[in-house]
Design brief:
homodimer, alpha+beta, Nucleoside Triphosphate Pyrophosphohydrolase, 2 domains, seven-stranded mixed sheet, six-stranded mixed sheet, 13 helices, 17 strands, NAD-cap_RNA_hydrolase_NudC (chains A, B), EC 3.6.1.22 (chains A, B), hydrolase (chains A, B), magnesium (chains A, B)
Chain lengths: 431, 431
C-alpha cells in the first residue's frame, strides 16, 4: 500500500482552458503538477470553501432566522444579507446563456427571493424553510453578503418551465453544463461546482425523506444541511451521504501499457479507467485491488494515490460520489473480463493511448454543448441528447477516445501518458 | 461539524507492542513503508479480499441457496460449504479467550449453523435468510470452503447471554478487542478486521430498515450485502453506507512543529490530529483545508495523502467511516480554536511529540485489555469500563500521549516524528 499526494493550492482555484489544459499540451511536469490538480470539475466551489461562524449574519443559523422573517413579510432586517435562489427540476439546475465575444457562455439561473416567490405562487411548491436549502455565502464587497439557496421545483409542473422559458431560462442536465463549461473561465468553473454541490444536497433530500431506523418522516435542520427524524422516540440525526468510489489506472510497467476498459453503457469508441464503489470494512487501497481483480482478474501490487474529485452527476439515488483516483501496478497480466460488469478490457500501449488523448476534440465538444445550452435557453431546443456531443467526428475517426478533462479518468490517463505517473511512483520506490 | 475518532473516555484503550511497531522503532523508511501500511487495524480482512464469482459454491448467491436448503432441513447438499456464524449484540461481537504461552489471546465466537440454531431456538431471533448476512468465504484447503455469516441477536435478550456465558463466550465491545489485539499475531489482526466488517454491515442493516425515498420496508438482497425497498412502486436498491472522514496532521514546516488538538470527550492528556466528515461537493483536499480552517482558523496550502483506514468503531448511526489520512502544510500559524468543536489546539515541537509517542505504553494497554477480555469470557467481569486503561501510570505521568497504533492518527504523527513525512513531501516538491 502506498501513498502520495495532491497538490491543490489553496482552494478557491478554478481552471484552465482546454487549450491551456497542461496535461494535453505541455509535457513538462513542473507546469502540470500545479495546474493539473487545480483542475477537477466540481471541485473549487467558491461559496463552499468555508462554513461561516454561526454568529455571522450569513451563516446557516443566522440566514435561516432572516429567511423566517422574510417569509413573515418582515423584509427590512438590519444586516440582512441578499438572498439568491437556484431552482432545480428533476436534478437539473436552472441556467441561462449569454453570448460573449461571439461565443455562448452559460450561467446559473439565480432568482431573487421575490422573483422566486412570484414564480412559485400558483404552484405545488412552497417557498419555505422546509424547501429552501442553504448552499453557502459570498462577499460582494463593502460588507455586503449574498446567501445562496437551492430549491427543488420538480413538483411545480410544466407551467413554471414555460414561465421561466419566457425569461430565457431553461433547466439543463448537469452533465451538459459540465461538458459546456469553458475551462478558461473561472466564473463558469465556480458555477459548475456550485451547481454540483446544490444537486448533491437536493437529491440527498429526496433520498432521505424518511428515517432508515424507524420509517418516521425526516425534517430539515441546520438550514437544510442536515436532517432529523421527526419521531420523538427516534430523533436520529441524518447527514448527507457521500459515496467514495475508487478509480484506478492499472499499469503494466514492464511492457509500458495501461489497462483501459469499456462498459456497455459507454458511447461508442470510449474507453476509460476501472472504477468501483467501496465496501464497508476495507481501505481505499484494498478496494483498488479487489475491484481490479473482480472486474479483470488482474492482481495489483503497489497502489499510488493521485487526487480526488466530487462527482455529483451520477444517478439521483447516489447524489454525491467521491472519486478517489489511483495508479495501480499490475502483478499479473492475463485479463479475465467479468462480463456482468464490463463489455471489454484491454492493455493499450502508451502510443495508442496518447493518440486517443490527442484526437479527442474536447474543445469542440465543449463548444457544441455550449451552443446547445444557448439554443435551449432561447427555446429553440427543449430535448437533450448528449451522446452526439461525444461523437466528435472531424474527418477520420480515431479507434478510441477517453473521457474529457472534466473526469478524473482523463487526469489519471494523461498523467501516465506524460510521464507524471512514473515520476510519482519512482519517488516512492526510492524512499 | 466535528469528528470522532477513536478516543473517547468510554472507548477502549490503546494497544500494541511499542517495541514491535516499526514506525516507532526503525528509522529506515524501507522497512517502515512495508510494515507500516500493513498495520492499519480493521484493514486486511482475510475473507473480504475478493468477492467470489457468482458461480462458485461459496459465493453470496450460491451460499444463500445452500442456506435456504439448510433452513428447510436438506443438510446434505453436494459441494455444500461449511457455515460459521458470528453473533453480535448491541454492536458487540461474540468473543472467547484462550491462554497461549501464559498470555490471553482473544478470538471471535464463531458458532456452527446447528449450535446457533440451538442457541436461538427459544428467542425472538429467527435464524433465516432475512437475518443472516454474508461476510465472506475462505478456503480450509483440499477444496473445502467455509462461508462466514453475521447475525444481530440483540433482540434475543439476556437468556442468550447467560447461555453463551456458560460456554465461556462473551459479547465484547469492538474497541476493547481493537486495543487487546496483538499486532504480532496475524490471525488476531485478521479476526479484528472480520469483526469490523461484520459490525459495519449489521449496524447498516439496523440503520436502513426503511426506505429513505418512500418509507417502505427494506428487504435483504444479495445475501444481505445490499437491500431493496419492498414497495413495488419504489423498489430502490440500497447500498451500504461508507462515510469518508479526512484526518490530517497540520505541519508548521518552518518551525518544525505539528498541530495537535483535544476534544472534550478525549481522556485526559490525550492529543490527536484534526479530523472531519466530508461535505457533498468537495474533494478530499478541499475538506482538509475547510476543516482545518473551521476548527483552528489555520490556512493550509499543500496537502499530501498518506493512507486510509476503515473505521467501524464509531457510533452505530455511522456504521462505517473511512478515515483518509493527510499531511497538511500550514500557510498561517495563528490558532483560533472553535470551542464548539475542540477543547484546545496547540503547536507542538517534534521533540515533545516524540516523547508523547515514547512514553505512552501501548503494549501495557494491550495486555490490560486482553486480560479484561479473558476475565469477561470467564465470567469474572461482565461490566466494561475501560477508561482506567488509559491512565497507564508507570512512574512519572507524561504531559500528553497520542492514540495507539490502531488509529491512523498514530501513523500520521509517527511518520512526521520519524522524518517519513518530509521525505514524501520533498519528493513531490522536486517533481
Amino acid at each position: 500500500m502506498i501513498f502520495l499526494l495532491s497538490f491543490t493550492n489553496s482552494a478557491a482555484t478554478r481552471l484552465v482552458s482546454l487549450s491551456k489544459f497542461p496535461i494535453l499540451r505541455t509535457p513538462q511536469f513542473s507546469t502540470m503538477s500545479t495546474n493539473f490538480f487545480k483542475s477537477h470539475a466540481f471541485a473549487g466551489n467558491p461559496i463552499k470553501l468555508r462554513t461561516p461562524k454561526s454568529t455571522d449574519p450569513f451563516s446557516p443559523p443566522s440566514a435561516l432566522k432572516t429567511l423566517k422573517n422574510l417569509l413573515l413579510g418582515n423584509t427590512h432586517e438590519p444586516h440582512s444579507p441578499n438572498f439568491k435562489i437556484l431552482p432545480f427540476r428533476k436534478g437539473r439546475p436552472l441556467a441561462g446563456s449569454v453570448r460573449e465575444s461571439n461565443e455562448p457562455n452559460w450561467h446559473l439561473g439565480w432568482l431573487s427571493f421575490e422573483d422566486c416567490k412570484a414564480f412559485l405562487e400558483n404552484s405545488e411548491v412552497n417557498l419555505s424553510e422546509d424547501t429552501l436549502v442553504y448552499l453557502g455565502s459570498d462577499s460582494e464587497g463593502d460588507g455586503v453578503y449574498v446567501v445562496y439557496w437551492g430549491i427543488d421545483v420538480t413538483e411545480a409542473g410544466n407551467g413554471l418551465v414555460k414561465e421561466l422559458g419566457g425569461k430565457q431560462f431553461c433547466f439543463v442536465e448537469l452533465r451538459t453544463l459540465m461538458v459546456a463549461t469553458d475551462w478558461e473561465n473561472a466564473s463558469s468553473m465556480g458555477q459548475l461546482a456550485i451547481a454540483g454541490h446544490a444537486r448533491s444536497l437536493l437529491e440527498w433530500h429526496t433520498a432521505s425523506r424518511f428515517c432508515g431506523f424507524c420509517g418516521g418522516k425526516n425534517i430539515l435542520i441546520d438550514a437544510g444541511r442536515r436532517k432529523q427524524c421527526s419521531n420523538e422516540l427516534c430523533k436520529k440525526k441524518i447527514y448527507p451521504r457521500v459515496d467514495p468510489v475508487v478509480i484506478m489506472l492499472v499499469i503494466d510497467k514492464e511492457n509500458d501499457r495501461a489497462l483501459l476498459s469499456r462498459q456497455s453503457r459507454f458511447v461508442p469508441r470510449m474507453w476509460s479507467c476501472l472504477a468501483g464503489f467501496m465496501e464497508p470494512g476495507e481501505s481505499l487501497e484494498e478496494a483498488v485491488r479487489r475491484e481490479t481483480w473482480e472486474e479483470t482478474g488482474i492482481e495489483v501490487g503497489q497502489v499510488v494515490y493521485h487526487s480526488s474529485q466530487p462527482w455529483p452527476v451520477g444517478p439521483s439515488s447516489m447524489p454525491c460520489q467521491l472519486m478517489v483516483g489511483f495508479f495501480a501496478y499490475a502483478k499479473s497480466l492475463d485479463i479475465n473480463v467479468d462480463k456482468e460488469e464490463l463489455e471489454d478490457a484491454k492493455w493499450h500501449s502508451r502510443e495508442d493511448v496518447k493518440k486517443a488523448l490527442t484526437i479527442a476534440e474536447y474543445k469542440k465538444a465543449q463548444k457544441t454543448a455550449s451552443g446547445k445550452v444557448d439554443q435551449m435557453c432561447k427555446g429553440v431546443e427543449r430535448g437533450q441528447s448528449l451522446s452526439s456531443d461525444f461523437n466528435v467526428e472531424s474527418g477520420e475517426l480515431a479507434p478510441m477516445f477517453i473521457p474529457g478533462p472534466f473526469a478524473i479518468a482523463n487526469h489519471l490517463i494523461s498523467s501516465w501518458v506524460n510521464g507524471v505517473e512514473s515520476q510519482l511512483a519512482s519517488s516512492f520506490s526510492n524512499l
